[in-house]
């Protein structure tokens, strides 16, 4: 276990050292106005192999099916039909920025009734609305579901999620977003991780590359670029040059802990003050071994069960009291923690205790 922890620590050290290299501005920011828009629709999936909605439990499926048939000229008023090869679904998609009418986008389909699987189904033409209530795309196509279900008389096995799937390029854009990007006189760059140092470096890098003061830092998360001052032919030309400028981002000292898998990831700027750590374990074991007591042959009485309990307490030796010295680099911090000789899951508890003691100079993120 200790060898595994040392291997993980070396890997984390290599990853954090590599992340210190400059990256493109497009990987650090979002451009104001260049964003996607969420779309939502309510539709019907047909062609299922008996795995659709039970119409007694999902009356809305019958309603949408009747409405669709009436639009197609089929009169179903007063008729009772209960097929098991249809399912009501919610259809979601993201309209990417600058999407033009006629282009195609991917959609995700999810059952909302009691359908057991969407495998082999076909999504019938479904309008997709945005938050303003307007229809921006229409979806239709064969569903690709990533799960599978097998069942018998006494057992059922399900792998993945067969009640959700995707339709690649299943929606066609019918309406474009009204946004005149070419008329912008300035564009704001929104940092994905706000930081004053990183924002200042972005400002300096843009001004140095264009040899003029076109960018100004507004706050820790925003840098504004004057498009006219760039002397570019259009805002698209200006951002096409700016987004490829490389900047070395500044990152906070952070330790990320995943309690479910026992994974610990440390940033290269993590520091630790000298601290003494003692770690051990106390195990309490209770075992029940009841004994049946019977009377002698032909003797009066009845069989009774006598409880018998064995209780034991084990106190593990632990590591004693160990001193973790000051860490001036990630390698020294890892070496000091490895000297404790504990498993990664126990290391998580030690890191929490060190943070509570004020000796861990980093943000501790527990997932």
Automatic annotation (TrEMBL):
GO terms for molecular function: structural molecule activity. Keywords: Bacterial flagellum, Cell projection, Cilium, Flagellum, Periplasm, Signal. GO terms for cellular component: bacterial-type flagellum basal body, distal rod, P ring; outer membrane-bounded periplasmic space. It holds the Pfam family FlgI. Its main location: other. HAMAP family: FlgI. The basal body constitutes a major portion of the flagellar organelle and consists of four rings (L,P,S, and M) mounted on a central rod. This is Flagellar P-ring protein. The lineage of its organism: Bacteria, Pseudomonadati, Pseudomonadota, Alphaproteobacteria, Rhodobacterales.
């Amino acid at each position: 276990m200790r060898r595994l922890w040392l291997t993980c620590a070396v890997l984390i050290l290599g990853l954090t050292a590599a992340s210190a290299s400059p990256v493109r501005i497009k990987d650090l920011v979002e451009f104001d106005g260049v964003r996607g828009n969420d779309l939502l629709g309510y539709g019907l999936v047909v062609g299922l192999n008996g795995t659709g909605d039970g119409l007694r439990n999902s009356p809305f499926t019958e309603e949408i099916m009747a409405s669709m048939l009436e639009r197609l000229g089929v009169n179903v008023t007063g008729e009772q039909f209960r097929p098991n090869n249809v399912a009501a679904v919610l259809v979601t998609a993201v309209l990417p920025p600058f999407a033009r009418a006629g282009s195609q986008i991917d959609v995700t389909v999810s059952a909302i009734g009691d359908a057991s699987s969407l495998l082999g189904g076909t999504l019938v033409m479904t309008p997709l609305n945005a938050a303003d209530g307007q229809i921006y795309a229409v979806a239709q196509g064969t569903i690709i579901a990533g799960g599978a279900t097998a069942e018998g008389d006494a057992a059922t096995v399900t792998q993945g999620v067969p009640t959700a799937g995707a339709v690649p390029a299943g929606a066609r854009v019918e309406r474009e977003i009204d946004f005149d990007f070419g008329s912008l006189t300035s564009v704001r760059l929104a940092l994905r991780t706000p930081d004053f140092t990183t924002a200042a470096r972005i400002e300096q890098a843009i001004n140095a590359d264009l040899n003029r003061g076109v960018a100004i830092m507004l706050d820790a998360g925003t840098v504004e670029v004057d498009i006219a001052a760039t002397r570019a032919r259009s805002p698209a030309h200006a951002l096409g040059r700016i987004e490829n400028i490389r900047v070395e981002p500044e990152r906070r000292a952070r330790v990320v802990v995943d309690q479910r898998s026992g994974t610990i990831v440390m940033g290269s700027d993590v520091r630790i003050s000298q601290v003494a750590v003692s770690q051990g374990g106390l195990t309490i074991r209770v075992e029940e071994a009841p004994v049946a007591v019977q009377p002698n042959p032909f003797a009066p009485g009845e069989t009774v069960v006598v409880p018998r309990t064995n209780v034991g307490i084990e106190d593990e030796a632990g590591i004693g009291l160990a001193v973790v010295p000051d860490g001036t680099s990630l390698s020294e911090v890892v070496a000091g923690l490895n000297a404790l000789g504990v498993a990664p899951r126990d290391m998580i508890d030690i890191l929490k205790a060190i943070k509570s003691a004020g000796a861990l100079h980093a943000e501790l993120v527990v997932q």
